[in-house]
Amino acid sequence: QSAVNVPRDFEGCSTLRKYFGQLHYLQSRIPMGAEQEAAVPITWTEIFSGKTVTHEDIKYEQACILYNLGALHSMLGAMDKRVSEECAAGAFTYLRDHFPHSYSVDMSHQILNLNINLMLGQAQECLLEKSMLDNRKSFLVARISAQVVDYYKEACRALENSETASLLGKIQKDWKKLVQMKIYYFAAVAHLHMGKQAEEQQKFGERVIYFQSALDKLNEAIKLAKGQPETVQEALRFTMDVIGGKYNSAKKDNDFIYHEAVPALDTLQSVKGAPLVKALPVNPTDPAVTGPDIFAKLVPMAAHEASSLYSEEKAKLLRDVMAKIEAKNEVLDQFMDSMQLDPETVDNLDMYNHIPPVLMEKCAALSVRPDTVKNLVQSMQVLSGVFTDVEASLKEIRDLLEEDEAQERKLQELLGKAPAPQGSSPPPPSSAGLAEVSKECSKYMEVHEKASFTNTELHKAMNLHIGNLRLLSGPLEQVRAALPSPALTEDDKQVLQNLKRILAKVQEMRDQRMSLEQQLREMIQKDDITTSLVTTDRSEMKKLFEEQLKKYDQIKVYLEQNLAAQENVLKALTDANVKYAAVRKALAEVEHKWNTTVQTLVASYEAYEDLMKKSQEGKDFYTDLEGKAAKLLEKARAACQAAEANRQQILEKEMKKQPPPRPTAPKPLQKKPPELEAGAGGLDTGDLPPLVSL
């Protein structure tokens, strides 16, 4: 009811649009078309003949609503200020392009063409007037005016059609005369401004012919304007004053001053129109215009099937895009793996400016224990002292035993016993006490030798770590100075910066690719066109799919650009990596030294407690061994004294058993007489007493 009795204002336009949209939603669900099950008779009155026309087709209802929408727009346009280039042609154009022309004669193709071009022409007139008031360039104004002429020429052709003439009757003649008058008038305006342009370009001959042509066309317009309102006549007279004045002035100047040849009009380039007006669009499914679909819950099975087909189209699009992305990602991953370049640690220069946290922790721990090194040195000194005492005691015992052994050997020789052959075992100790001492000493010596090796290793470890502990206990500046750092030239730094810049580009490319992929997936997931499918004819489904899939074109372009850039980025990275090779080797060596130094210092800190523990264990061990060695030394001294006393007693007894020695014969003062020579009857030598060796 509201659409039939629509108010003559913009609210009325809104009502017509909403009703038209809801009819579109309805006809896509309910079979109300011609010869369909739910078709009902629809009756409207033709505008020109006054006859009533009835069709059992919901599309006829839609067509009549569209026609009235265009008519209402044209009425509102006529009442509005002439400042807008929007026009009522949109409704007539949609009606012409989407509905049959056989419903009624006022919806014939020629009538709709007439309405469309009349609306466009009048809208272009508004734009022309605005351009002239804004003092736009003459050539632009001429082109806008020429387009007005083109629109009206199309309208005139429609008016000259026999069907149109018979339908419109007397109106046809009046409209045709008015349209023709406008054609001449706006052609005159176009040539007036072409003459102005020629004047600006100092083409005075062209200026004369354009002004003359404008004057001729204006005279034709004046002839056709008989019977028009006084406002039209006044406009024509004003225009005549302008064009006439321009023509007379231009002709006079050229005749007396410039003397340029006046070319024929047909030798000059024709003015091409500039269509700058736009028809108000008609979109029956725009919710901002039609409001919510009141039949939204009625979704035909065909729409569900079509939605599934569209989902497959989206899936195919995603598969195609993902295949390209995955192929490029695989190449990129393999390339980066082969390069072994981590953007975060490509130079590690920053780490050399700071003491690592693990080392800072050790320095902090030692700062609250200032006697660490002192305690370790004292522990080493105590251990060394005890070790020396033990070794001295064992040496003295060994010396006592060796002395006793030597004395025992002399005694045996005095008693006439043969000495032990070279290399044989030493003689047994001279007493059971010394034998026990010797056995104990050997055992202690063996233990001492084993412990001595351990003690030596412990001292080496202490000497190794004590310097590091002193460093960690000192100022942090010294610790930092002790850590290695790279010495890079300016060229080396430039190589590093370039490599890091390209690696950042690689990461940027990755991030952008992931972002675009995510956007594409989200768009596809949210893309539901079921509502549009409901209101779309099956024959138009493929076209609708193509139009809907165009929404992904922009993001596909971005992805293609991203993928195409990969080759250039990787080439640049390869070149940068070649230059980085020498710097990389140097940095790797410094980093290895740095890590080794840090690990060594940490190891020294962690070894401190172990060293102190082992040092204490060594002190305890040697203290115990020292006590045992001291007792054994006293025992050895006592045993040696007893053995020495025993040897003295044996020696004395042996001396008593030996007879006193005879005196030896005095040495003769002269040579023996012959008779005393051996074998000459002297004394038998066998009668001499034996020589005793004491």
TrEMBL record:
Domain of life: Eukaryota
Region (Disordered): 647-694
Ranges of residues in domain BRO1: 1-332
BP GO annotations: early endosome to late endosome transport; endocytic recycling; protein transport to vacuole involved in ubiquitin-dependent protein catabolic process via the multivesicular body sorting pathway
UniProt keyword terms in alphabetical order: Coiled coil, Cytoplasm, Endosome
Coiled coil stretches, renumbered: 387-417, 499-526
Main location per the UniProt record: cytoplasm
Protein name: PTN23 phosphatase
Organism: Todus mexicanus (Puerto Rican tody)
